[in-house]
């Protein structure tokens, strides 16, 4: 049945599919582009509509899939779509299923190599882009089905039932204390972009049609979407194009830029917004739009065509319109991820090739070849280490300072990884998400994993801030609009956890000596807080001196003027911003 119950699709043994209305009147056949007419082995593996009950990712999203056991598949926006997306999944297909909001298609099947059979679940976007593959043990895969919120997948293999956790790739980013994320519903044609300040719990909303990408850094984010605009041309006709919006932490647009290609990846640094399509990279200088003065500097806009490293052009409006056809050029090796700093851009391609460009010249400086298909890349704070996650979820490190050829850092490889976030203050430390666990890594030493099902916002001061996006999306499905602080969790790394345990078991002077061996400002800050709670002014003063906290030292001088212990504890609670504790102490004192 079609989602509106007006049409029925009938599949026949030889692969034909006929359309009937709800009164069983014959309308006609569906044109099958993915197989040749009359192929006797073209047995249908699945005909699946996405019902649209949770909205569409965009107005041109595909919602009907027709797949054959041979692996031939086509994605259509409707039953008479004249330009479907044609795919060959390269395996014997058993089942195809849309997830709950039409953002992902699961294709279950197997590959036979000799006497061995390997079962796979391939995941695709509504536009036919391969997202990830999951290899499953067993002999013969039969079917799969999604959980209501698409967070789990159930798989039938032989006489067993398997459950797989799915980590969805939401469009979201984190800037300072603000989580920016998007969702869509069937009641509005636009994506709803939420700007949620996790410190004040203030929420702002913005409505964006055809949202494609999000990225942020510092206090600003970039939103990429599809629009229509009249670009300079011979007949001045309306041309499909896209826009990049530079916004602050409450969703107010600071500057906008029209570009003639689809933004798939966005990376924002202090001075640049880097936007990539499948074969194009656009570098937009944003340093003139940010800061207290908001002084607009000389525009900086450049394009890089990665299949032709010599193609670096300035991006005025006329050249933008002329270069629009470059994105239409098919590439067999599309961009899968990018990252950068104010000095470098790193562009990862599906084949395993990483291109390194210098800024601001946009000169190709290096090609790094990896022997696997790349999914995500990320840089540490000083551009000396790079993490790479391949399409199978394996995470590796590359030393960017080593002599060529680049090699993986020995003794480090993690599997089932889907996210890596580097620490802002420790260049050799990062946090990884593997399955439903979070682990801290320093150098190549991996700490014991902690259960976690959230998404990493930030790693700073030996603490990782995690947002529970899955729970937030469930909340919006239920009709609740504003998230709460319950969806934010803070995890301490081993160094900070051990220090807090030591404060409970050892004298604070001894803990201070331990911190001296491996100092960090957050350790001294935590020790100062613990010393204040114990009214140990001497240790607190020593800790404040170590981190050059003049305000803390001034507070200690003022604290010594109070006579009663309860007054001191109330002042300490106020200093530590524990308002409920302050009120409790004064109520107990009958004040």
From TrEMBL:
Give start and end of each IFT121/TULP4 N-terminal domain.
Answer: 1-167
- One Pfam family from the record: TPR_IFT80_172
Q: Which UniProt keywords apply?
A: Cytoplasm, Repeat, WD repeat
Its localization reads:
Cytoplasm
GO BP term (any one): intraciliary retrograde transport
IFT121 second beta-propeller domain spans which residues? 172-475
Which sequence ranges form a coiled-coil region, renumbered to this chain?
Answer: none
Question: Gene Ontology cellular component?
Answer: cytoplasm; intraciliary transport particle A; non-motile cilium
Question: Which intervals hold domain IFT80/172/WDR35 TPR?
Answer: 523-588
Does this UniProt record's set of keywords contain RNA-binding? no
Q: By what name is this protein known? A: WD repeat domain 35
Which species? Rotaria sordida
């Amino acid at each position: 049945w079609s989602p509106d119950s007006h049409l029925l699709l009938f599949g026949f043994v030889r692969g034909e599919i006929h359309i009937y209305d709800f009164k069983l009147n014959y309308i006609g056949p569906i044109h099958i582009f993915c197989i040749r007419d009359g192929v006797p082995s073209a047995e249908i593996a699945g005909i699946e509509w996405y019902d649209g009950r949770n909205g569409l990712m965009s107005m041109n999203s595909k919602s009907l899939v027709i797949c054959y056991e041979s692996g031939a598949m086509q994605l259509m926006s409707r039953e008479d779509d004249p330009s479907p997306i044609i795919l060959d999944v390269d395996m014997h297909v058993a089942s195809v299923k849309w997830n709950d909001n039409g953002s992902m298609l699961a294709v279950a099947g197997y590959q036979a190599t000799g006497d061995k059979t390997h079962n796979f679940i391939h995941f695709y976007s509504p536009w036919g882009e391969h997202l990830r593959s999951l290899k499953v043990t067993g002999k013969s895969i039969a079917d799969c089905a999604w959980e209501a919120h698409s967070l789990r997948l159930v798989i039938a293999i032989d006489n067993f039932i398997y459950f797989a956790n799915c980590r969805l790739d939401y469009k979201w980013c984190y800037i300072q204390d603000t989580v920016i994320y998007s969702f869509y519903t069937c009641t509005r044609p636009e994506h709803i972009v939420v700007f949620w300040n996790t410190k004040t719990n203030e929420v702002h909303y913005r409505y964006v049609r055809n949202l494609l990408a999000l990225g942020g850094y510092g206090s600003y984010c970039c939103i990429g979407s599809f629009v229509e605009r009249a670009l300079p041309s011979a007949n001045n006709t309306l041309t499909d194009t896209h826009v990049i919006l530079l916004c602050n932490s409450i969703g107010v647009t600071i500057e906008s830029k029209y570009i003639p290609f689809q933004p798939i990846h966005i990376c924002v640094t202090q001075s640049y917004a880097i936007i990539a399509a499948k074969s194009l990279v656009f570098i937009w200088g944003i340093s003139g739009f940010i800061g207290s003065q908001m002084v607009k500097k000389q525009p900086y806009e450049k394009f890089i065509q990665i299949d032709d490293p010599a193609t670096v052009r300035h991006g005025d409006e006329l050249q933008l319109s002329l270069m629009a056809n470059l994105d239409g050029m098919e590439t067999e090796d599309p961009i899968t991820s990018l990252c950068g700093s104010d000095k470098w851009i790193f562009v990862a391609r599906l084949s395993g090739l990483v291109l390194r460009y210098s800024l601001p010249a946009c000169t190709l400086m290096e090609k790094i070849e990896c022997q696997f298909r790349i999914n995500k890349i990320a840089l540490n704070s000083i551009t000396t280490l790079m993490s790479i996650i391949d399409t199978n979820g394996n995470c590796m490190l590359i030393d960017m300072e080593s002599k060529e050829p680049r090699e993986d850092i020995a003794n480090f490889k993690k599997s089932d990884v889907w996210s890596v976030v580097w620490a802002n203050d420790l260049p050799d430390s990062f946090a990884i998400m593997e399955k439903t666990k979070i682990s801290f890594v320093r150098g190549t030493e991996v700490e014991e994993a902690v259960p976690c099902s959230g998404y990493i916002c930030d790693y700073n001061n030996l603490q990782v801030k995690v947002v529970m996006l899955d729970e937030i999306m469930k909340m919006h499905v239920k009709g609740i609009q504003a998230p709460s602080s319950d969806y934010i969790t803070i995890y301490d790394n081993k160094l900070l956890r051990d220090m807090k345990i030591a404060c409970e078991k050892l004298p604070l002077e001894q803990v201070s000596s331990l911190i001296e061996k491996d100092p960090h400002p957050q350790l001294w800050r935590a020790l100062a807080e613990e010393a204040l709670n114990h009214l140990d002014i001497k240790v607190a003063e020593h800790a404040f001196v170590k981190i050059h906290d003049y305000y803390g030292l001034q507070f200690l001088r003022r604290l010594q003027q109070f006579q009663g212990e309860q007054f001191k504890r109330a002042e300490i609670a106020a200093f530590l911003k524990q308002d409920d504790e302050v009120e409790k102490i004064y109520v107990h004192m009958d004040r």
